[in-house]
Each structure stands twice: as C-alpha cells, then as structure tokens.
Design brief:
This protein is α+β, with helices and mostly antiparallel strands. It contains three helices and five strands, in the order βαααββββ. Helix 2 runs antiparallel to helix 3.
C-alpha cells in the first residue's frame, strides 16, 4: 500500500563549488561519496543533485521532519542503473531524472497492508 509520495526539483547551476562541497560533506553517506569519486565531468554534479533531490523527495514522501539528517538516507544504484533507497524501517521506491539544467526525483513510501 502506498502511504506517501514526494517530489523534488533541483536547478543544477545553483550548486556552485562551495555549495557542492558543503552538500558533499553534509548529505552524502560514505558509500555515496565513494560513488561520486568514480564520476567524471558533469556527471559529478548530476550525481550530487540526484542524491539531493532524491533525499528531499524521500523526506516529503515520509511527510514529517522526523528525518533530520540526510545521511540516514542512502540512495545507491543497481548494476543496471536503477536507484534504490536504504532507510531504516522504511520501504521506499525512487526515480531520478536529469536534464541539462535540472534534476528531478520522486519517492514513494510503501507499507505492508
Ligand atoms: C535508464 C534510462 C531510462 C535513463 O534515462 P535517461 O533519459 O537516459 O536519463 P535520465 O537522466 O532521465 O535518468 C537517469 C537516472 O535514471 C535512473 N536509472 C538509470 N538506470 C535505470 C533503470 N534501469 N531503471 C530505473 N531507473 C534508472 C538513475 O537514477 C539515473 O540517475 P543517477 O545515475 O543519478 O541515479 C535510459 O537510459 C534507458 O535505458 N532507456 C531505455 C530505452 C532506451 O534504451 N532508449 C534509447 C533508444 S530510443
């Protein structure tokens, strides 16, 4: 059963070098930072924006501010690229998309009926 949905959009160019470094330290988990290191060129910014939009979408989908630390939410990718969320006590689906200037993410919270 779906119990929550959340969506978020990030304008990529608003993430300047300073903001990039702050977000990297403040929102990425250790594993996400390892993945970021493998990204080159514009893929680096896309990756960070994807995690940021994704985590904002997850927080909206949960619907209250009980998740205060974005590092509690981990968004990784399967071998085929499909993203998935790891967050204690929650079953969450996520989708992320990048365009030249924007990144959007949508999250859905599921609960057993
Ligand atoms: C995977 C695919 C859907 C990504 O779409 P895209 O338009 O290239 O790129 P987008 O920016 O919209 O999406 C990228 C995000 O999709 C997600 N993604 C990647 N592979 C995915 C998959 N197999 N399933 C679901 N989501 C996927 C990721 O979250 C990725 O962002 P991230 O790497 O930052 O996490 C696309 O490449 C694809 O394989 N399409 C199938 C059809 C096809 O091959 N068309 C080409 C010939 S017409």
């Amino acid at each position: 059963m779906i119990v929550g949905i959340g969506i978020d959009i990030v304008e990529n160019r608003r993430i300047d070098e300073n903001t990039f470094n702050n977000l990297k330290e403040n929102i990425l988990t250790v594993k996400e930072k390892e993945v970021l290191l493998t990204k080159k060129g514009k893929k680096k910014l896309e990756y960070l924006c994807g995690r940021f939009a994704g985590k904002e979408a997850v927080i909206k989908a949960i619907g209250d501010k009980e998740i205060l630390n974005m590092k509690e939410i981990e968004i990784l990718n399967r071998e085929n690229g499909k993203p998935y969320v790891i967050l204690k006590d929650y079953n969450i689906l996520i989708s992320i998309s990048h365009e030249k200037n924007y990144t959007v993410a949508e999250a859905i919270v599921l609960k057993e009926e």
